[in-house]
Amino acid sequence: MSNSTTSRWILGLAVCIFTAASYAQWSNPADDIPAYHPSAPLKVSALPPILAGPKLRGDNFRFPWQVHVYQQAARIGNVLYQLPCNCRCDRALGHTSLRSCYEGLHGTECSTCAKEALFAYRETKAGKSPAQIRAAIARHEYESIDLERQ
User: Is the N or the C terminus of the chain less surrounded, counting Cβ atoms within 10 Å?
Assistant: First the structure.
């Protein structure tokens, strides 16, 4: 075997090993947690506002539950900041937490985001901490929320 053939085999093997190692890292369920912030935002930080008031009208707000979800989200914005969103909008839209879904219109079109926000509101009112709510979201407890009964 010539030096160039050996070099190509080594390079090919290295590419295969790198690809396999990278794939294993991506598929690790323990690392597959959607984006969130571990603590409340600093008082000095300026976050984009959650949509409210006249912005809760129009074609995107066809159902009463959509307006209701945004109203509840506005009341617990700092809690939502500390929660992940299981629809994976962190990957698709660059969201940094569940709160990001309500800074724009995403919360109107995604039942996962809507259910999680209503669940978070109820759990916050029941005295649960963001960490407890985060754990419950990881267990998919929000899935029992019925958006039509809001």
Answer: N
